[in-house]
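Support request, please re-run this one:
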Amino acid sequence: MDFKSHPHWSALERIYHTLNDHGYKAYLAGGCVRDALLGRSANDLDLATDATPDTIEKLFPKTVGVGKAFGVMLVIEDGISFEVATFRSDGAYNDGRHPENVVFTTPEEDAQRRDFTVNALFWDINQGRVLDFVGGLKDLADKKIKAVGLAEDRFAEDHLRILRGVRFAAQLGFEIEEDTFFAIQKLSSIVRSVSSERIHEETLKLLKSADAFRGLELLDKSGVGKALFQSFPQIFQKSKKQYEHLFPSTDKSDEFLWCAFLAPWALQRDIGWEWILDNYRFPRNMTKSLKRAMELFANPQHFFLSPVGEQFISLNDEGVRLFLKVSMKLSMGSSQPQKLLQQWQAWGEVLPEALVTGEDLKARFQGRDLGVWLQRLFAWQLEGRHTTKEELLKQIP
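Re-run finished. Output below.
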């Protein structure tokens, strides 16, 4: 377990020793332990402790009570935020996300309220050993995603866990344990109660997964895809080959992944992509770019048959570039997407300055005609037909 190579280890270790020196237990918990056991790099180092939130506030000068009522604090060390959570058991869940109350308790009971066994492991830093109260080590060895205790109970507590189970299977390359998958299928519809922001974030993590295509298969088989994205089952069944070309992707940008996910809807003239953009809280600029890309996917030949100079000019639009990147993965438009994107890179990802400006033409054209001729001359310039202002001006009859 090589935690010491983590860039934040020294700061985390100081937090640990502060708790330990004051007589409190503190263990690394959750995903970081799972990832370390799998030989994967962990993003965040989280601690679980028997120190209460009030005690944590007294021991550390910089804290944020992000979920103090539920025993969750952030401790700021070296400018880095670490989650430090008190061991707890949860009361009843009535909103599908938060317990009505919590009771501070032991590591054994804390493990029982976690989502999946592979996420319910603790690492005793002092003893250098794993604490496993729920069979997580065996499930890790068997490559199984298994709910802690009764799967239906865990999913009823926090409805997002249904989607997280699918995401973990795609991210880790694991199978979902039979009873757990049955519960996901049975309760798939309740995931609709989760906030659009959390669905957006979790789906994006799935699309970034090492086996994202399998994640999409599980969305289809489990019914979660239908619950969240309406016509997804029909789109997926008709577009499996396309999705296999698109996922997993080496391009991990949010814009590309969402464009790749939504493109099959537009290619099949299904406006379900509009519903997804409207319902899952996309940033305004991303929405604009994705809408433009989907419009192009609805009629790709219209773009590819347009004059090359006009295609070059359109590269200034991020939606067009997304369309071309996904088209290249789908082998659409022959070699044209690749040529256009290569030229865009050669220009330094910005269009060259137009040789002919409105000042050059205002004596001859007004209004719409001026715009048409500026566009036409700029297109010819980008095509390489004419390389000087004088040559371009000679083309005007």
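The chain has 23 helices and eleven strands. Residues 149 and 206 are 24 Å apart (CA to CA).
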